[in-house]
Design a protein that fits this description.
Elements (H helix, E strand, L loop, with lengths): L9 E3 H15 L6 E6 H6 L1 H7 L7 E5 L8 H13 L7 E6 L1 H13 L5 E6 L2 H7 L4 E6 L2 E8 L5 E3 L9 H18 L1 H8 L10 H21 L14 H12 L6 H19 L4 H14 L8 H12 L10 E7 L2 E7 L2 H7 L3
Parallel strand pairs: 1-8, 2-3, 2-4, 4-5
Antiparallel strand pairs: 6-7, 9-10
The structure holds nicotinamide-adenine-dinucleotide (NAD) and zinc ion.
The site of nicotinamide-adenine-dinucleotide has 29 residues, from helix 2, helix 5, helix 6, strand 7 and helix 7.
């Protein structure tokens, strides 16, 4: 897989629209060959901003799906393909994904299979989309409640990051994106972690430049890791820090009292930092700092019960990321340094929930 060099293909705010406009005018033969994928919420909040910046896009084809993770399935992809066909899309067509991670995952996947692959551009509109989902060439949909069971690695033409979209994003979605940004600091840059812990969600709107800068740094951290190991054979696994336990919590609570991915990851990072402290050399003072910062974003009010712990372990034992039947963890060595392929005894995983 040919990977473009770091920073080569992500454009920010105003300049981004010039790049996009230029690309559309010179690299796409007809406006009828441009398809914008939105969900009903980004249709209302984000499409007008895109049109304001590039007026002629009003004449392109808009494909709208319902918003929500439930829509991230193969049936939605078939519907989108049927729409592309109805509007006579060709191999030269282009899909512009305008939305959160659900839209960029679905749209990227459709682009990778329609007529054996057409071009696409990502315009993420959630914080999580900007710093995580739209970066790293993974596309896909869920199958029978198994997350991202069908998918592909597929490279967009480029990405556009416009922080104006974040103005309408609900606070809980901001926290979700922040969880991944904090993770980027913990696994790869102490300096970035320190910048992140000084900022609070509520000053997001007033301080857009500051946020732009943090988003940019966060993207570079992920891009740098992904470019060294695009197919997740080694180093890229550090991006899973907090996610082994986080995914189990997300799956377990899915049927009881749904929790957001970001919240599950914050809890997962607290528990996995404790494990890191026990067996991977993370110092107690680093652990205490991590726990105190992350707990302010997501206070863990109720301790997880013994029965719940059993069920969580069962989920982890059946995770598709396991190798040789062993649950794999990425654990911190210190703030800014992370190891991968760590095996953790079940007894220690259980104990982590009790701290
Ligand atoms: N491909 C990857 O590498 C990768 C990485 C991380 C996450 N993901 C995937 O990303 C998805 C989660 O992404 P998400 O959190 O962005 O979810 P999402 O796309 O569902 O967006 C969250 C909500 O915000 C709404 N929204 C989007 N932009 C908005 C805006 N500007 N203003 C107001 N509302 C807006 C959406 O309609 C939705 O209701 C998951 O499916 C996850 O598996 C993929
Ligand atoms: Zn995540």
């Amino acid at each position: 897989m040919k990977i473009k060099k770091r920073g080569e293909f992500i454009y920010f705010n105003k300049k981004a629209y010039d790049v996009l406009k230029n690309y559309l005018l010179h690299k796409v033969d007809s406006i009828k060959n441009i398809f914008i994928l939105v969900d009903d919420i980004t249709h209302a909040h984000c499409l007008p901003i895109l049109f304001q910046n590039i007026n002629f896009l009003k004449k392109s084809n808009v494909i709208k799906i319902k918003s929500g993770e439930e829509e991230k399935n193969i049936n939605t992809c078939i519907q989108i393909c049927k729409n592309l066909e109805k509007f006579k899309a060709t191999r030269k067509s282009l899909i512009i994904n305008l939305g959160g991670g659900v839209i960029t995952d679905i749209g990227g996947f459709v682009a990778s299979i329609f007529k054996r692959g057409i071009r696409f551009i990502n315009i993420p509109t959630t914080l999580l989309g900007m710093v995580d989902a739209a970066i790293g060439y993974k596309t896909g949909v869920n199958l029978n409640y198994i997350k991202n069971e069908i998918g592909s690695f597929y490279i967009p033409e480029f990405l556009i990051i416009d922080t104006h979209f974040l103005r309408t994003l609900p606070n809980k979605e901001i926290v979700s994106g922040m969880a991944e940004m904090l993770k980027h600091g913990l696994i790869a840059s102490q300096n970035f972690w320190e910048q992140m812990i000084q900022i609070q969600t509520d000053i997001m709107i007033q301080n857009e430049n500051k946020w732009m800068n943090l988003i940019h740094q966060s993207i570079l951290i992920k891009q740098n890791i992904v470019n060294q190991d695009p197919k997740e054979e080694g180093l890229r696994k550090i991006l899973n820090f907090g996610h082994t336990i986080g995914h189990a919590l997300e799956s377990y609570f899915m049927n009881i009292n749904k929790i957001l991915h970001g919240i599950a990851v914050i809890m997962g990072m607290i528990y996995e930092s404790w494990i890191s402290c026990k067996i991977n050399g993370l110092s107690i003072s680093d652990y205490k700092e991590i726990k105190s910062i992350l707990s302010t974003l997501c206070p863990i009010e109720n301790k997880i019960s013994g029965l719940e712990i059993k069920k969580l372990l069962f989920i982890m034992e059946h995770d598709k990321k396991n190798e040789k039947n062993k649950i794999q963890f990425s654990l911190l060595k210190e703030i800014g340094k992370c190891s991968y392929n760590c095996q953790v005894p079940s007894s220690l995983i259980k104990e982590s929930f009790l701290n």
